[in-house]
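A quick aside before the break. I want you to see a complete sequence-to-structure record at least once, exactly as it would be stored in a machine-readable document. Don't worry about memorizing anything.
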Amino acid sequence: MKATAAQDALPAERAEQVRSFIERRQRATVGEIVTEFGISAATARRMLGALADRGEIRRVHGGALAVRHSGPEPPVVQRMAEQAEIKARIGRAAAALIEDGETIFISSGTTALEVARNLRERPRLTVITNSLLVADLVRDAPGIELIVPGGLLRRSEQSLIGHMTERALQELRAAKIVLGIRAIHPQHGLTNDYLPETQTDRAVLGLGGDVIVVADHTKCGVVSTAFVGPISAMRVLVTDERAPADFVADIETEGVRVVLA
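That is the input. The structure line, written in tokens, reads:
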């Protein structure tokens, strides 16, 4: 792309050219944008600020990063081996945030399942879950009282979703909510890739407790299709040490505690 073409473009067209440039490279500095498009550093910074405000890029010191978009999630059984060691660490760290005697909700998902695995030996706990895998894991634990709301079975996720589940959740309250999520982005918030389950996740947020989101680094700075809630919906994010430092800083700026497992 020639600088003269960029200079002749309308502001909206030039902003789109800059966004495409960043997307192709995955990241770009202000200096690189100035050289590529023949614009001033001040103009480049204003343009990056506007693109970041719209969530089209991610602003970092000295430049910008492309926003990654998450594709459809594979079935839960296929995800068991993905980031397994990291998910185990996240599960232990998140379980340490749960107090004995509490009523908690645990969502579906492989990382949330690891939290449940680390709660099996608790002497007294009430667990609400719409995950059949979580329910099966804790059903024989003597110290756990298990509540499973009914609903429509989503076979690929082994989770109960839909109107019946959401109505049942309206009758329940939890001190803490352990929520697995497909994608987390400082501007776009918490997103998932399957709308019917996303609607159930929104009902889960209505349980009233502190929301503990569990997600490995591959979910950080990523956007998926369906909006679940803003960053402010969560109290704690438990992720791993490979989460980008600038992402962690952005999340903490929103008042969210970040635990790196």
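Two observations worth writing down. The chain has a mean pLDDT of 89. The CA atoms of residues 24 and 159 lie 37 Å apart. We'll return to this after the break.
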